[in-house]
Amino acid sequence: MSLLRDTFKERSAENWDAAVACQGSQRFNAAANRYYYAVYQAVVYWADQKKLVRCERSHAGFHQTLPELLAEHGGDSGKDFRDIFADVYALRIQADYKHPVAEKHLKRDLIQKADVVRKSLLKPI
Amino acid sequence: MNMDINSAITKCTERMRSRFRGCHVEINPTPDDSTFYEAVVYGVEEDAVDQVAHFIHELDYQVFRPAGSLLIPMVVDAEDTRNYYPEVSLILSHARLQSALQQVMPVLTGLDYGKYLPDWNFASHRHDDVMTACDAELALAA
Q1: In chain A, how many domains are there?
Q2: Buried residues in A13-23 as b, exposed as e (16+ CB within 10 A)
Q3: Chain A residues inside the 8 Å CB shell of B56
Q4: CA-to-CA dists, residue A42 to A11, A81, B60, angstroms
Q5: Nearest CB to A64: which of B36, B74, B76?
Q6: Hey, is the C-beta of A90 within 8 angstroms of any chain B C-beta?
Q7: Residue A62 to residues A19, A50, A68, B117: CA-CA distances in angstroms?
Q8: Neighbours of B27 (CB within 10 A)
Q9: Does the beta carbon of A67 lie under 8 angstroms from any beta carbon of chain B?
């Protein structure tokens, strides 16, 4: 078992809480960034459980490989999860590099789906 | 990404620009990961944002996933375009989008022919004139 696996689970929860708090205080760019990393860390946690990656070796390349791992190994929901992960990634790209994220960009539907993905992936396999 | 897909991206981008009649459409590597791509469409009215994003997701499915990449929609609505990208003047309305998509889809289909978009199926949208243009274009490229 990866030594850091549980740490990733905790960080995912911490980032999600931070995202919700940021959104509540209208810090929307920070919220978008934290939402993405909350999901990202859940995906890494899931992939580690599946022995597809190791948390300890998390690096920039994970952003490339994780979406396809989700699609290929995520079962019936894998492709849907990949799409939601991609949408949250797009939100993070906007927040970090594009025009400012506003309340209207943090659509409730997407955030709810992202939370479902995150919680699903954080379940023990 | 291999060259064939890059050619498809180029053609898709050109055709989308053409069919959206001046609307800014770009497919670029994402700022933090050159293996992922973003499809940026500026000046989209609020009521057309979801449709444009859906169209980009279709491109993702048909072109980018088979190549092991990812295409994300970066749809900039009219308000944001006016505020942050003032050089973009054309606003794409829902009604205009309906018309535009009718023409873009068959152009993408025209890139098919078992090479670029093997699973694309928009037969009901095909227009002979556009298909002919694509045939000619592919013949020239061959």
Answers
A1: 1
A2: bebbebbbebb
A3: none
A4: 9, 12, 23
A5: B36
A6: yes
A7: 21, 15, 10, 27
A8: 20
A9: yes
Q: How far apart are CA A94 and CA B47, in angstroms?
A: 20
Task: Tell me A11's DSSP state.
Answer: H
Region of B127 (left: φ > 0; alpha: ψ -120 to 50; beta: rest) is beta
Beta carbons within 8 Å of A97's beta carbon, 6+ residues apart: B31, B32
Tens of pLDDT, residue by residue over A51-104, are 998 887 766 667 778 888 998 899 989 988 998 999 999 999 999 999 999 999
Pairing of the two strands B25-30 and B33-44:
antiparallel
ipTM of the complex model? 0.81
Q: Which of B72, B81, B88 to mutate: most A Cβ within 10 Å?
A: B72
Q: Say which CATH number the domain at A68 has.
A: 1.20.120
Provide the sign of the torsion angle of the four alpha carbons B101, A99, A27, A44, taken in this order: positive
A79 touches chain B (CB under 8 A): no
- The DSSP H or E segment spanning B27 is strand B25-30
Cα A19 vs. chain centroid, distance in angstroms? Answer: 11
Partner B contacted by A64 (CB < 8 A)? yes
Containing structural domain, residue A96: 5-121
